[in-house]
Amino acid sequence: MKKIGFLSFGHWTPSSQSQTQSAADTLLQSIDLAIEAERLGIDGAYFRVHHFARQLASPFPLLAAVGAKTRNIEIGTAVIDMRYENPHYMAEDASAADLISGGRLQLGISRGSPEQVIDGWRYFGYRPAEGETDADMGRRHAAEFFELLRGNGFAQPNPRPMFPNPPGLLRLEPNSEGLRDRIWWGAGSDATAVWAAKLGMNLQSSTLKDDETGEPFHIQQATQIRAYRAAWKEAGHARTPRVSVSRSIFALIDDRDRAYFGRGDQERDKIGFIDQSTRAIFGRSYAAEPDLLIRQLKEDEAIAEADTLLLTVPNQLGVAYNAHVLEAILTTVAPALNWR
């Protein structure tokens, strides 16, 4: 068995070719797709976060709205760029959204990825400390956020407060008990996956990672997952961690699918540079008739290692088509691979 979720980047563009021509279209359709995905039996609704782009950004209003409109589906991010975040304010927002959803939040966070603007986090008022890189700052914000979710008191109360205080140091409110166990780190390298394991975060690994060995993407990603699990065991955490990978997977079952995704031009890993010095490997997409798709996916070592699979969806094609894409995977592919 494997948990299967969808992952939406939430693109919009004022084009007649797009079903999402505005931010409002994207946000409202994101809620509708989560409702439809829950009806189909999909396990999770996950959303990407990008700033300064015509895509989904600060996620908590959307997560809270999805939580209020659904009952069972997991609701998450993949991932929030922690270089932009105030850990204290984020802890309040995350706890509130989690309480609204009844404890269904699964928050993916990370140091961030290439951006639309140069050092965009500076416009949000953040600067790396002396001797830090922006990546260091992102990990520092993440560690602070993760610690705040423990719910321990740390702030000295006012001796003459507006409202009565409980005894002792005060914590942030609201606090959602259990949310800390549902924080995931989006790791781009083996080293950051090990770092996340030591802290006690779950692991999200997408279709992009540092090219550390020159091997095919799925093999490098499977190695990363194994290193993460070994570090988790060594750290002695009591619970079993969760691990997700994301993939673009399309079962070609009708003419629409073949027109959109039947070109066969994404069947190989790609190599690129995400900055001046970091060589990255980008995982392939999968699009084929169900029988061939099943055979191809059986060879993906990282999918086999993970307990959760996030399916990236082409949100600009609208809710009905994306529901069709998800249902096709659930009915024609998942049972044959023992995902269901």
Average pLDDT figure: 96
Q: Tally the beta strands.
A: 13
Structural class of the secondary structure composition? alpha/beta
- Unreliable runs, pLDDT <50, ≥5 residues? none
Characterize the overall form. globular
**Rg (CA only):** 20 Å
First CA to last CA: what distance?
Answer: 5 Å
Helix percentage = 25-40%
Q: Give me the strand/helix succession.
A: EHEHEHEHEHEEHEEHEEEHHEH
Number of helical stretches of at least 4 residues: 10
In the sheet with the most strands, the strands line up as 1-2-3-4-5-6-8-13
Features:
340 residues, eight-stranded parallel beta barrel, three-stranded antiparallel beta sheet, 10 helices, single chain, alpha/beta
What do you see in this structure?
The chain is an alpha/beta fold and 340 residues long. It has an eight-stranded parallel beta barrel, surrounded by seven helices. The protein has a three-stranded antiparallel beta sheet with strand order 7-11-10, with helices on one face. Helix 3 links the parallel strand 3 and strand 4. The longest helix is centred in the middle third of the chain and has 19 residues. The chain is globular and about 70 Å long. The N and C termini lie close together (5 Å).
